[in-house]
């Protein structure tokens, strides 16, 4: 029985349409996932009714005893998951987690160094259009022109020249392993704080499938909704030395009352991530993206950096052209969308087009892996991607492969329900 369907059929119908979209299509957006029913239940719970400004044991409102319990549980589980001394689970998003770290340890116009947005970084790493780029003085590093990977010697040189107060590492569209120890060494040499933003790879790090930043760099920020497969939100980890400053920066520095229903959902997510099943899941995410990468390479596609170590692939479309103009990221995103494959356009190193058009495509496996797909299915998905892109590249108005692939995908997707137990 649905209260919402009775009371507000307009909103109910929209949610129902979205549910069908998620079920019938293939979600290959690298930053998305499918949360468990338990996480959904916690996030949809009455924990949302309460104001709980402050921290467990030190709230500004009465009646917080159970909110204290759930926030303590979330913090303890997150510390256990990553071996952290201190965790703050109140940041409502990854961006706010980053802002809180900057705000705690940098002053207006202090210099930070971070990966360029157009070469895999994130808005909240000092992009000129973001508050972080307007508030701090930013020097960006990119990837090496040849290897399209991070070059730590180049980054070290830049750090020596720029002398930043903080070095930020971590990315949104970087398919390779990040060497957090190298970043920390560079930061130490130039007397900078080091922040690792593991928003994308947190699930892989938690499972031991990517080297950790916790206990290596000074601050680790993350989202909880990407590979970690929890509710939409952020978190920060650090040593006890910095605990007070970080907590104060999140509240009252950045936010008022925390989203306690989401913190309940985070607690559930961290419990799930501590299980052996989750370790298997994280392994499978990588196997899946590598299986897909191999087929795409075999089909003649260019992958930025030539492959992947993690959950995502960055396709370089600049060689995908029949008669001059190459297929853009925007076109590829649109055509694949029509076929039931959801991906996002993405800038690539040495991008010549605007961020609204781009020459690249980011493809990620966390969500389809959550639906139970394995290497065999990923190979099939890669073939579908190849069929659609090659066909529309020849003729932008062709619907032949789009229509054929859409039919095949609808049938295929029905074998991998989002929530098997409710079908
Ligand atoms: C996704 C992401 C974030 C934060 O995203 P929000 O949408 O603000 O939660 C921060 N850093 C990186 C590297 C990301 O990929």
UniProtKB/TrEMBL annotation:
It catalyses: (6R)-5,10-methylene-5,6,7,8-tetrahydrofolate + glycine + H2O = (6S)-5,6,7,8-tetrahydrofolate + L-serine. It is found in: Cytoplasm. It comes from the Archaea. Pathway: Amino-acid biosynthesis; glycine biosynthesis; glycine from L-serine: step 1/1; One-carbon metabolism; tetrahydrofolate interconversion. The keyword Amino-acid biosynthesis applies. The keyword Methyltransferase does not apply. It is an enzyme of class 2 (transferase). The record marks 225 as: Plays an important role in substrate specificity. (6S)-5,6,7,8-tetrahydrofolate binds at residues 117, 121-123, 354-356. NCBIfam families: PRK00011.1 (NF000586). Catalyzes the reversible interconversion of serine and glycine with tetrahydrofolate (THF) serving as the one-carbon carrier. Also exhibits THF-independent aldolase activity toward beta-hydroxyamino acids, producing glycine and aldehydes, via a retro-aldol mechanism. This is Serine hydroxymethyltransferase.
């Amino acid at each position: 029985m649905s209260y919402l369907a009775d009371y507000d059929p307009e909103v109910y119908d929209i949610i129902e349409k979205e549910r069908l979209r998620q079920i019938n299509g293939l979600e290959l957006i690298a930053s998305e996932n499918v949360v468990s029913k338990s996480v959904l239940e916690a996030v949809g719970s009455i924990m949302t009714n309460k104001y709980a400004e402050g921290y467990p044991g030190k709230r500004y409102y009465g009646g917080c005893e159970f909110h204290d319990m759930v926030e303590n549980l979330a913090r303890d589980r997150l510390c256990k998951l990553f071996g952290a001394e201190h965790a703050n689970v109140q940041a409502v998003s990854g961006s706010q987690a980053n802002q809180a770290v900057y705000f705690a340890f940098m002053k207006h116009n202090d210099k930070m160094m971070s990966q360029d947005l157009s070469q895999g970084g994130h808005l909240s790493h000092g992009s000129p259009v973001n508050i972080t780029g307007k508030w701090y003085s930013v020097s960006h590093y990119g990837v090496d022109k040849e290897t399209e990977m991070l070059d730590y010697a180049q980054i070290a040189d830049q750090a020596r020249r720029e002398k930043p107060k903080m070095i930020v590492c971590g990315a949104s569209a970087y398919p390779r392993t990040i060497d957090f120890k190298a970043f920390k060494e560079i930061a130490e040499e130039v007397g900078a704080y080091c922040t690792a933003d593991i928003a994308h790879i947190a699930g892989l790090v938690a499972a031991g499938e990517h080297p950790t930043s916790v206990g290596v760099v000074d601050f680790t920020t993350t989202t909880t909704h990407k590979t970690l497969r929890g509710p939409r939100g952020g978190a920060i980890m650090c040593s006890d030395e910095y605990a007070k400053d970080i907590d104060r920066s999140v509240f009252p520095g950045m936010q008022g009352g925390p989203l306690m229903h989401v913190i309940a959902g985070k607690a559930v997510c961290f419990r799930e991530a501590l299980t052996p099943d989750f370790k298997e899941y994280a392994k499978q995410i990588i196997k899946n993206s590598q299986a897909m990468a191999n087929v795409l390479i075999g089909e003649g596609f260019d992958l930025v950096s030539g492959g992947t170590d993690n959950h995502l692939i960055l396709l370089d479309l600049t060689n995908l052209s029949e008669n001059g103009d190459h297929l853009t990221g925007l076109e590829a995103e649109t055509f694949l969308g029509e076929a039931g494959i959801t991906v996002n356009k993405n800038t690539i190193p040495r991008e010549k087009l605007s961020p609204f058009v781009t020459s690249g495509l980011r493809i990620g496996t966390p969500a389809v892996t959550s639906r139970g797909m394995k290497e065999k299915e990923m190979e099939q998905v890669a073939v579908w991607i190849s069929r659609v892109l090659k066909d529309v590249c020849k003729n932008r108005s062709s619907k032949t492969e789009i229509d054929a692939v859409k039919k095949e995908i609808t049938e295929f997707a029905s074998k991998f329900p989002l929530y098997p137990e409710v079908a």
